[in-house]
Specification:
Layout (H helix, E strand, L loop, with lengths): L10 H16 L8 H13 L3 H14 L4 H13 L3 H9 L8 H12 L3 H9 L8 H10 L3 H11 L7 H13 L3 H14 L4 H14 L2 H14 L4 H13 L3 H13 L11 H8 L3 H14 L4 H17 L3 H14 L4 H13 L3 H14 L4 H14 L3 H10 L6 H13 L1 H16 L1
Helix pairs in contact: 1-2, 2-3, 2-4, 4-5, 5-6, 6-7, 6-8, 8-9, 8-10, 9-10, 10-11, 11-12, 12-13, 12-14, 12-16, 13-14, 14-15, 17-18, 18-19, 18-20, 19-20, 20-21, 20-25, 21-22, 22-23, 22-25, 24-25
């Protein structure tokens, strides 16, 4: 959704708006707020996993302000957040004009959703410099995972805004998306100099230090975050994760209780931001430690638990601890016998150990359980057959795959194996590994 400051301290104001709205509606009274207050409240419900309540607020707001451009734009972003770009397009088409530039940014976002990337860039650059808010354009690029574009747009169009908190907040998010945590820390420190009482700025600093493995500095930052806002659940959750990472399970559990009390851990949609930072930085052993803490202490749905098993298996495989990896994939298959991804990972481990027969068997199991994916799987089975010098099977699986080889390509592949088997196998296994990631 289009927001000016993704790190702003507004939780208490939004809690008050929610309390006002729900109290008046329960009493059968009308609720009068400005359109931007309704939009903020709607976003707050969505962000706190109450989309039905968000729908209710938006419907009520539009009944009061049926011609509100801002509310219609907000609803279009809500459709985009749910993956419904068609409804977002319909809503955008209902807006006749917009003098703030927000509609133009929405239209560019819709172009990006249609993968019309250059068209979107040209469209945005066609407007005068004062037509579009550089912060909102940069945030739109962030939302669509074009962090470099967000930074570039700010540097070109945000001149004179370099010390604004909105500008700096976008930079923090962009640098974090790009894994440039040292640069993000420098910007966080600038933000904290401007507002040392911002719990969110301190939390962002702590998460950057977490990503870099500087856990003591991260804990200090989380302490300052909680000192500034004792009700910031995400700060307790990050502090819980940090204590788990440094081996202080008692402190981790204390902070986890606070995070749960403040709804930072929600069954069905657990906050895994910190885990993502570790995985992004390939801090595999720390990621394992954190996930195994989750399994012990956080109430997960079955899907979450199986997802955690899968990531643990992948992490152990990365460390070449094959026995532990296999045990987690087996736990998935005990619940979902035909799970394609678990079977593929088991096949990958067997390939790493040159157990080609079992790898082929697991890929066949994946085909049997997932016939819609059989052409893709047949391609891999063909490569395994080639490595095993089972050339008839190689031809058979290649013909049924999603990328069948010509007879000349088959001949060259067989020749490659026969002439330099060791190097050819190494080359083919590397190619297979890329398919399993």
């Amino acid at each position: 959704m289009a927001k000016r400051n993704p790190l702003s301290d507004s939780e208490k104001r939004l809690n008050n708006l929610a309390r006002k709205y729900e109290t008046l509606r329960a009493e059968g009274e009308s609720v009068y707020m400005e359109p931007d207050d309704f939009a903020d409240l709607c976003s707050w419900y969505d962000n706190n996993y109450y989309p039905d309540k968000g729908d209710e607020v938006m419907e009520y707001a539009l009944s009061i302000y049926p011609e509100s451009t801002m509310l219609k734009i907000e609803q279009a972003y809500r459709y985009l957040d749910r993956g419904d770009s068609d409804q977002a397009e319909i809503m955008a088409d209902q807006i006749e004009d917009d003098f703030t530039g927000d509609l133009q940014i929405l239209k560019a976002r819709l172009m990006i959703e249609r993968e019309e990337f250059e068209v979107a860039d040209d469209y945005l650059n066609s407007f005068p410099a004062d037509k579009l808010d550089p912060i909102l354009v940069a945030n739109m690029y962030l939302d669509t995972h074009f962090s470099e574009k967000a930074i570039t747009w700010l540097k070109i169009h945000g001149q004179g805004m370099e010390e604004d908190e909105d500008y700096l907040s976008i930079l923090v998010s962009a640098y974090c998306y790009l894994g440039k945590y040292s640069e993000a820390i420098e910007v966080c420190e600038k933000l904290i100099d401007k507002d040392p009482f911002s719990a969110h700025y301190w939390l962002s600093l702590g998460r950057c230090y977490l990503a870099l493995g500087e856990y003591n500095k991260a804990l200090d930052a989380c302490d300052f975050s909680i000192t500034n806002d004792e009700d910031l659940g995400d700060a307790y959750l990050t502090r819980c994760n940090l204590y788990a990472l440094v081996g202080n399970e008692e402190k981790a559990q204390e902070n986890l209780k606070q995070a749960i009390r403040l709804n930072a851990v929600i069954k069905g949609d657990m906050n895994e931001f910190d885990l993502a930072l570790l995985l992004d930085q390939a801090r595999v052993e720390d990621a394992i430690r954190l996930m195994e803490f989750y399994l012990k202490h956080i109430d997960q749905t079955q899907d979450q638990r199986l997802n955690t098993y899968f990531r643990l298996g992948v992490c152990y495989n990365h460390l070449l601890w094959y026995k532990q990896a296999m045990s987690y994939f087996d736990m998935i298959l005990a619940v979902r016998p035909g799970d394609k991804f678990a079977l593929m990972q088991k096949a990958a481990i067997n390939l790493s150990q040159e157990d080609f027969d079992n790898a082929l068997h697991q890929l066949q199991q994946a085909v049997d359980a997932n016939p819609d994916d059989r052409k893709f799987l047949y391609r891999m089975m063909g490569v395994v057959s080639l490595i095993m010098k089972q050339y008839d099977d190689f031809r058979h699986f290649s013909a049924m795959s999603d990328a069948p080889l010509t007879e000349e390509e088959i001949r060259q592949s067989i020749q490659m194996i026969e002439q330099d088997e060791e190097e050819a196998v190494k080359f083919l296994l590397e190619g297979l590994k890329n398919n399993f990631i």
